[in-house]
Amino acid sequence: MTMTTTNDMIAASPARRRFGGGDLIGLAIILLVAVIGYFLFPNNLALLTRIIAAALLVLSLDLVTGYCGVATLGHAALLGAGAYAAGIASAHYGINDPLAMLAFGIVAGAVAGLVCGVVILRAHGLPQLVLSIALIHLFHEFANKASSWTGGSDGLSGIAPTALLGLYEFDLWGRTAYVFGVVLLAIVFLLLRLIVRSPFGMLCRGIKEDPVRIRSMGASPKIALTKMYVISGAVAGVGGALNAISTQVVGLDSLSFNMAAESLVMLVLGGTGSLFGALTGTVVFMFFEDVVSAANPFHWLTMVGALLIAVVLFAPKGLYGTAAALVARRREAK
Questions:
Q1: Distance CA 59, CA 154 (A)
Q2: Burial annotation 130-152 (CB, 10 A radius, 16+ → b, else e)
Q3: Residue 156: φ, ψ to 5°
Q4: Distance CA 265, CA 275 (A)
Q5: pLDDT of residue 67
Q6: What percent of the chain has pLDDT above 90?
Q7: Spatial separation of the C-alpha atoms in residues 136 and 131, rounded to whole Å
């Protein structure tokens, strides 16, 4: 067998740069669910906006874990970086335009992704997890100690976003924030669909499957994974900026290990290596957590744990991954 070049391998892949039917269907589903949620929970749009921000974090995690195979338990550091950057821009520099705050969040998330990627990618397997845990604790401690900028344990307040596009005020009911979040999620989803099916995305998948072969073809796995980490950080930064804009306060919980662990749980729940799986896991987990914690405040963690055990044992590919596999088998049987 002759050795093909990396470019030949990538060009032969079925990835296409333009949007396909699956992209439009996915976008339609996101918008449909968003409209249904708006009318079903008109008085709880703040929860729906938090779900969107969490979905952006889980999507960013899926890029490095699901598509690249990088083990991390510190991805919330990227979300927190975006949230604090947007909040500091508003509270300390008077940059209150929501789109400008969003830009600050994206840049800060990308920079944090670069820093985390450079450190974490120096190891493999269990040491990667240790480095990721160490990083999120360092980010958390830095935010806590830099209280003059971040507000420390009291949180960063004084965030006052102006009307979006000069027309839509961020009202107390959270309608503007929710619609803004839905638009951001739709745009990010379409962009990520392009990325994961592009030659670069296929290269990252190849690195996950066989990094030695990719290296022998002349490509650099570390450089490719670092680029994906930067992209992932930018996506998480969007979620962090959305949190800062919608809640108008940023706390240390945005940099907590609990949030990082929960994001990984959401990803596994929906199914790794799939953007639809990341979205499914986020929605199911956060709604289940909200309903169960309200119904049984004393034992809700037990019920959440039982759900996760059941999914791991009976749907190891996650809810979406298992459902997609069943549909594929039925089609093949026909």
A1: 29
A2: ebbbebbeebbeebeeeeeebbe
A3: -95, 115
A4: 15
A5: 92
A6: 48
A7: 9
pLDDT per residue as tens digits for the range 86-123: 999 999 998 999 999 999 999 999 999 999 999 999 88
Contact 67, 52 (CB under 8 A): no
Residues 251-267 as b/e (b if ≥16 CB within 10 A, e otherwise) read bbebbbbebbbbbbbbb
Helix (H, G, I), strand (E, B) or coil at 250: strand
pTM of the model: 0.90
Q: What is the pLDDT of residues 213-249, one digit of tens each?
A: 888 887 888 899 999 999 999 999 999 999 999 998 9
Spatial distance between the Cα atoms of 55 and 36, rounded to a whole number of angstroms:
17
Amino acid letter, residue 283? V
Instruction: Tally the residues of the chain.
Output: 334
Distance CA 111, CA 327 (A): 40
Please count the CA atoms within 13 angstroms of the CA of 203 that sit on its side-chain side.
24
Per DSSP, 191 falls in state H
Amino acid at 153: S
Mean pLDDT of 167-184: 89
In sequence order, the 6+-apart residues with CB closer than 8 A to the CB of 298 are none
Q: Side-chain half-sphere of 230: how many Cα atoms within 13 Å? A: 9
Nearby residues of 22 by Cβ (< 8 Å), 6 or more positions away:
193
